[in-house]
Amino acid sequence: MIYIKKLILNNFKGYKGNTEFEFNPNKNILIGDNGIGKTTVVQALKLLLKGSRFEFNGVSYLAKYINSEIKKQFENSNSHLVDELPCFSLVAVFGVEKEDKNLKLKKFNGEYKDSSGIHSNEYGISFKYCFDDQFLSEYTNFINENKGRDTFTIPFSMYKTEHKTFAGNIYRSIMDPLKSIFIDNDNFEGNPFNMFARQIYNNLTTRERITIESKFRLINKTLFDNINNKNETQYHLNIDPNSLRFDSIVDVSSKDVSLQELGSGKENLIKTQLSLDLDSKLIVIEEPENHLTANNTRKQIDQLNSLKNQLIVTTHNSQIVTGLDLENLLWIRSLKEKKQEVHFNEQFDEETKEFFKRRDDIDFLRLLIAKK
Hints:
AAA family ATPase; Bact_Antivir_Def_Nuclease; 25% strand; P-loop_NTPase; 13 helices; AAA_GajA/Old/RecF-like
């Protein structure tokens, strides 16, 4: 079995400094107030495992993920030393059982650093967004040109990304050893349907994808044959293979009906079931209760409880929490201006857990998170 054992965020969005999360091999339920950073944890995992649209929008796109307080401190300082330029970093440490430590995972084996020091012979990946030293002379000129100005703007166009395995190899999303699936049931940025379909498509084997794409290219090549054969001019119609990514047109359907045409609640259940049917070692779901009735939420809880691999869920729904077991709770809260996690794996006896499972109409989360 392979799973996410630890996640380390450094100056990423609302997490100033170093923040560490430890996960169970099976179910993990992230709870906390609105704006505390549950979605940020999901974004960090997705950036580590799947990459980001920065690959198409340029590295400056990632500047918004640097902790805003760190950025302001640097911009308002009297000196703007290159070594003090703000950056963020992420680390995902894999838990790997002995029988799974094979040659395929060797490229993920190496060392990482956390608050307790350097750890060797571990498995995982890291992502860093920082200043690119090859622009040192350009940055020096930039500083000289901006001396005396009231405001200072960090030149994020001089930044770079470092996405690597613990062995030091460049990491690409196609290498994802967890074959992870991310489901955001309320995200309408870009095309969420194609994003989900693309994740499913990318979980096919390399051989399966090559076969499908070869057939697709053959269809494109012969698509206009009948028309071009009748055309006596020197100009013929063709499909430009370089302007079309096959996975950008992949869709998901159920009984010949596109997922886009289904109601939000039905779409939610189908996405979850599809993810469970795949060979995914990790499924991450944001607010699975969205658009579901209480009865359908129970159906989804049954789906999720059937999962044998790792599940990470964010929720505001007490029914989800009690249905997936209180012992799997991971409460994110602020303590002395620093965010931290609180685990509940040994704080509830069986009688208490069974009571809240039976009485899923009780707002357990309100009781837990309420200020005492």
